[in-house]
Amino acid sequence: MDQAANLRRLVLEEGDKKLKKTKTIAVTSGKGGVGKTSVAVSLSIALAQGGSSVTLLDADLGLANINVILGIIPKYNLYHVIKGKKKLKDIVLDVPEGIKIIAGASGFHQLANLDPKQRSTFIEAVAELDSDDFMIIDTGAGVSQNVLSFVFAADEVVVITTPEPTAITDAYGIIKSIAAQAPEKVIKIIVNRVQSVSEGKRVAQRVINIAGQFLNIKVENLGFIFEDMYVPKSVRNQKPFIVSYPRSKASGCIQIIADRINNRAIDTARGSGLASFFKNLFVSHEAEDVDDEPEEEGDS
């Protein structure tokens, strides 16, 4: 009986592995300087601390800010994979914070140049990695096509803004761009650097109301992060604030947001997986040549 029970358990576990698809979440912003990358890194770590397996993909083609915040220098990136010098699994970097990093760098520009066979091989390689709960994609800032291509390819989008009027306007701008081309996309908003709970709720509700009224698109309030002196201090020390200052106000907010994502991932449908993400990315690159687009300012 014990052997039969163990066999059933193994079959169920194997079946669950086959069903499991990584949920891809693009973290983006309408403008630079709103703390997008710091949020993406600390959110990834918080999700991992909550028991999820997480890969963080650096898709900011202009600046490698994830490397700076984590204090690491990846030896290889996606470019080496596309050129056939390394396998995809060889460039995945485990970091002490409990997550994995994939450095994108200039490699994404080469995706548009792959022939069908190369693309098929690349997708197969990606599918081998499709075992994590989440892949967080740190995009560039702004509404250039190379940013939007990652946004459209992901299962969900998290837009980062601050209470500043220009940041709110630019956040609305990227939501408008998403609504025009992918109205069914799941969009969530995080308000960073708020002074109070009421300010965080007010700014988020303002964006939600305007998007609903003028774009007829639903935006979900994922939460807010307090203004916190420990955040810039951690950036200078090249350590994520959730690691350096786990008891800080900003870290507490990130933990709440991560708990919401983890809990909802259990209740909602599985992600579409990494193979689907990169297939969609190929389509986006075919739609428009990203090399002709100007780079946007990144942020930390």
CATH class: Alpha Beta
Distance between the termini: 57 Å
The unreliable regions are 11-18, 290-297
Form type: globular
Q: What fraction strand?
A: 15-25%
- How many helices? 13
Order of helices and strands: HEHEHHHEEHEHEHEHEHHHH
- Major sheet description: 8 strands, mixed
According to CATH, the fold-level topology is: Rossmann fold
The computed structural class is: alpha/beta
Q: Spatial order of the strands in the main sheet? A: 3-4-2-5-1-6-7-8
Report the CATH superfamily. P-loop containing nucleotide triphosphate hydrolases
What is the residue-averaged pLDDT? 85
How many strands appear in the DSSP assignment?
Answer: 8
Number of domains: 1
**CATH architecture title:** 3-Layer(aba) Sandwich
- Helix percent reads 40-55%
What does this structure look like?
The protein has 13 helices and 8 strands. The chain is an alpha/beta fold. The chain has one domain (24-289): Rossmann fold (3-Layer(aba) Sandwich). An 8-stranded mixed β-sheet has the order 3-4-2-5-1-6-7-8, sandwiched between helices. Helix 2 crosses helix 12 and helix 8 (165-181) packs parallel to helix 9. The chain is globular, with a radius of gyration of 19 Å. It starts with a helix and ends in a 13-residue tail after the last helix.
Show the helix and strand layout.
Elements (H helix, E strand, L loop, with lengths): L1 H18 L3 E7 L6 H14 L4 E6 L5 H6 L7 H5 L5 H4 L1 E2 L5 E4 L12 H13 L5 E8 L3 H9 L2 E6 L3 H17 L4 E9 L2 H19 L3 E8 L3 H7 L4 H4 L4 H19 L6 H14 L13
Parallel strand pairs: 1-5, 1-6, 2-4, 2-5, 6-7, 7-8
Antiparallel strand pairs: 3-4
